[in-house]
Amino acid sequence: MDARELLRKVRRIHIRTLHMANDVFAGQYHSAFKGRGMEFEEVREYEPGDDVRTIDWNVTARAGRPFVKRFREERELTVMLVVDISRSLDFGTASQLKRELVAEVCATLAFSAIRNNDKIGLICFSDQVEKYVPPKKGTSHVLRVVRELLAIEARGFGTDLGAALEYLNHVVTRRAVVFVVSDYQASGYEAPMRIARRRHDLIPITITDQREIELPNVRFVELEDSETMERIVVDTASPAFREEYRRRAQSAIAARTRELRRMNIDSIDLQTGQSFVEPLRRFFHMRETRL
Q: Domains (ranges, CATH) in the chain?
């Protein structure tokens, strides 16, 4: 991708996702994630309706009338995007590649973060960590994150989500909100994910394509594994083959869902060719209700 085309894509994503961050998700992002705690702001005289548990008894005793403590939320968060850029993301059959959906979702989350004065950082991975962008604030920083997501090409061929999570735990020492965006065509990441879950507010975002779940009847088709380059020819006219393909795909999804539930992790499931706005909105609302 040349520089001019990259700039056009960055501008297009900027326009689309900035609107969603400012209008569609305004307020929901802020309500969905807690700050690091509460810090003391001031003492003021008691007013009817104030919580009696906030009365400052020392000041009250000295003044001879009740005073209460006021606190404010220490709001600033660090938000990390841990993004799969392995070659299996260069797939899509619904007018959109999985990689393109990843870029739009991450840009929306990033603009939502800076709108709330939070820092945003990026880790890109394949079977190795490909890029680390330390968390910072500001629109220019978010545009850099978007450029990196659009321009980066993986050196590795496979996917090692476990190694990316171990790297996250090494470089981000303070608690952060971590979105792990991947198609989760990987294994062996459960133990590092449990550790990351204890240290951070971890949110997996799963990217899939309909043809990874169900195949149409188009007779003989050559399929290629984008990571191993292995090729096979299959007969999609066979109902038995299509049913076995669908059964295995759904079995893998069910196993991943069960594992995330065992770790008490909420996830967001997205699919190419479909709007990600409503799934994100439902997730933010669920988190807000729970908090």
A: 3-21+75-206+265-290 (3.40.50.410), 36-74 (no CATH)
